[in-house]
């Protein structure tokens, strides 16, 4: 499985960043959500699980941000952007110290993990009391989730069924297809079973994907409409 995950993003680092640069309004909407849910990080110790190329981190002071990333391609760029990559590997294979981090976040990375229970359990253990586990993802039940699953099952976005519905530059099909898209309720259930009671939810990308890159969107509370949703779980 290690190799499998490496293959998922290795070779896509440039394409990944380029996609966000071309979809700049969509990126701004996601960045707004990211900044909103991280809040004030001054003096806090953070861990970014699946930090990728550190694209979002390049908009924050990441002197206290550590990263874990299986793809060397992506992680090397994150290091250049100032993320302290502590491990090139999968979260499943990392031992995290107990009661250490104020915030652990998964920005889009849960969507590439099959079994969320062990990785969230490990992360919660590594948080200080009152620390936050923050999960940002495309929900499986959102329009974006449907689009990726349809692309995956058809093997293309370029299908008559999808005519007139697709954004100009959809997320690379290979990355959409290798995703293990989870619903928000599924992640909430996992966290509840791990003892979490205190939740907050924020969302963005509420427009249909066809129109998402027309202008940046605001962040709103909740998780039932967004194409990008953040769960904040307090330990
Ligand atoms: C959609 S990208 C998000 C990257 C970055 N966080 C961002 O927001 O730009 C998902 C990232 O999760 C990483 N990833 C996938 N499976 C992982 C695992 N089991 N443990 C840690 N990271 C993983 C991928 O290599 C990839 O960089």
Notable traits:
single chain; 235 residues; alpha/beta; Rossmann fold; eight-stranded mixed sheet; globular; binds S-adenosylmethionine
3D architecture notes:
By secondary structure, the chain is an alpha/beta fold. The chain has one domain: Vaccinia Virus protein VP39 (Rossmann fold, 3-Layer(aba) Sandwich). Helix content is 34%, strand content 20%. It has eight helices and eight strands, in the order αααββαββαβαααβββ. Strands 3-2-1-4-5-8-6-7 form an eight-stranded mixed sheet, sandwiched between helices. β2 (65-68), α4 (72-80) and β3 (84-87) form a beta-alpha-beta unit. The model has no long low-confidence stretch (mean pLDDT 94). Bound molecules: S-adenosylmethionine.
Summary, kept brief:
The chain is an alpha/beta fold and about 240 residues long. It has one domain (about 1-235): Vaccinia Virus protein VP39 (Rossmann fold). Helix content is about 35%, strand content about 20%.
């Amino acid at each position: 499985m290690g190799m499998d995950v490496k293959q998922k993003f290795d070779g896509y680092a440039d394409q990944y960043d380029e996609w966000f640069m071309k979809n700049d309004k969509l990126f701004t909407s996601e960045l707004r959500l990211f900044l909103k849910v991280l809040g004030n990080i001054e003096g806090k110790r953070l861990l970014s699980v699946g930090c990728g190329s550190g694209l979002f981190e390049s908009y924050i002071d990441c002197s206290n941000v550590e990263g874990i990333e299986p793809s060397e391609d992506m992680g090397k760029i994150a290091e250049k952007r100032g993320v302290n990559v502590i491990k090139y590997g999968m979260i499943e294979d990392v031992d995290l110290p107990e009661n250490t981090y104020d915030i652990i976040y998964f920005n889009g990375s849960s969507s590439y993990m099959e079994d969320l229970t062990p990785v969230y359990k490990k992360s919660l253990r590594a948080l200080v009391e009152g620390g936050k586990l923050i999960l940002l993802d495309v929900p499986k039940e959102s329009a974006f989730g449907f689009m990726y699953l349809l692309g995956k099952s058809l093997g293309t976005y370029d299908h008559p069924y999808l005519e007139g519905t697709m954004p100009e530059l959809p997320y690379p099909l290979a990355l959409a297809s290798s995703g293990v898209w989870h619903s928000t309720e599924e992640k909430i259930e996992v966290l509840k079973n791990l003892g979490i009671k205190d939740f907050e939810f924020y969302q963005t990308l509420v427009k249909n994907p066809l129109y998402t890159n027309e202008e940046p969107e605001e962040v709103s509370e909740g998780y039932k409409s967004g194409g990008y949703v953040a769960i904040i779980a307090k330990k």
